[in-house]
Structures are given as C-alpha cells and as structure tokens.
Amino acid sequence: MTDSSIDRLLSIMQTLRDPEKGCNWDVQQTFRSLLPHTIEEAYEVADCIERDDFDSLPAELGDLLFQVVFYAEIGKEQGKFDFNEIVTLIADKLERRHPHVFAQHENITADEQTERWEAIKAQERADHFGHGSSALDDVPLNLPALVRAEKLQKRAARVGFDWPSVQGVKDKLHEELEELEQACQQGDKADIAEEFGDVLFSCVNLGRFLGLHSESVLRSATQKFDGRFRFIERVLEAQGRLIEEQSLEALELLWQEAKTHDKESGSEAFETGKI
Asked: Which residue has the higher pLDDT, 238 or 132?
C-alpha cells in the first residue's frame, strides 16, 4: 500500500465521520458499537481463506482494514490515539520480537523463534502487569471459548503445567467422560453442565497435543455436517418425500450415501478443513 492510498482511506474515513458532511451511521458509531462488525469482518476473512476464495479475499481484508481505520479516527477525535500511533506500535513490537532479524541477524529455526517470541511476550506481560503477574494474563475473556481454552492451555504448558505425553490427555478425557456419565445418572443439571464443560476442555487439550486447532476443526466438522444434511434434503425433495417422515434407519442410509457422494465428488475439503 502506498502512502497516497492509505492517506486516501484515512481521508475518506474522516469525511464519513464529519458531523455536518458525513454519513449519519458512521458519525453515530463508537468503539463498542463497532465490535460486532469487526468480529464479523474477521470471520469473513477466515471464510475466504478456508474456501480458498482468493478472488474475494482482498475485498474482505479491505473491510477488516477499514475497521482499524474506523477505530483510529474515533481515537483521534477523542484525543486517545491515531492511525500513526497504531502503525508505530505494531512496527516497534515486530522489531522488538524479532531481534534475530533486526538486531542480532541470527539464522535460527522456526521452533527457536517461537521459544524466543514467547519469552519476549512473557517479559512484556511482566513489565505491563508488574509484580504478581500471571502466565495467563492478557488472554482475552471474550475470545471464542475453544480458542480461549487452547490459549490458556498453551500458556500453562509453557511454565510446565502440562501432561508429559498425549496418553495422559486421553486418560483425562476418559476420566471426564466417566464423571459426565455419573452426573447424568444423578440428574443434576448444574453438575451435568460442569462435567460437560470439562469434557470439552479436555477435547481441546487433546487437539492441542495432536497439533490441531479445535476452533478450525469444529468449524470444518460443522460445515461437513451442513453439506451432508443438505444433500439428504435434496435427495428426499427429488423423491417427493419429507425428511420428518423418514425413519432413523432410512436417514442413516442417506447419511452414508452423502458421505460416499463427498468422496466421489472430490469434497474431501470437508474432511481436511479446507472449506
């Protein structure tokens, strides 16, 4: 992006926020009111990438960039910060967290870089939060639950609070499933909810040990279910049959047919998460 193009975007944003000449909707927005739109734009970027839709990706990235420019303009109006400060802070952070590139000029492996990155971040957290800081500080509360669970587990693991092998994680998952079964037998809704949450947390931990991101994997599984269920609906509609009138056995046969259709039509993207 050239200076002229970013200046144009900043100028457009300033005009949109002008109380007299701007857009009423844009003028009314606040930091909080923009949050849902920012989250939506981030998910639309993720959707393009997961579907390999690189023709649409630039436009979606532009929408996400516009959110940053929007926040910058509100920040400038309130005397809190501006776009230049945002750019300066991220540039400083990138140089600070990549000393092997910008200072020491070392040729290190990706794993070594990850270790150094985390050590630098830990020091930054200690500097920011001061005495008594936690390894779990600054993990946002409003992250999607699966993402936050994984981040918390990774933070704990970096200070040694982790299973030595994947077998321990599997054993823990089985233990949590047994506790869920006991809670179900007792019938206490609060206990059932708590034990089910423990099962989900253990599943995320297992995914982490397997090198998987639970949020992405579940999104892929959800899309796979969506595609196969719609296939069943189309088959039944073509036959003039209603899905609610079919037996579970008949629906299971159609489900297997949908799975076969996925493989024959090259829809393995559902299986790999490339959706």
From this structure: 238
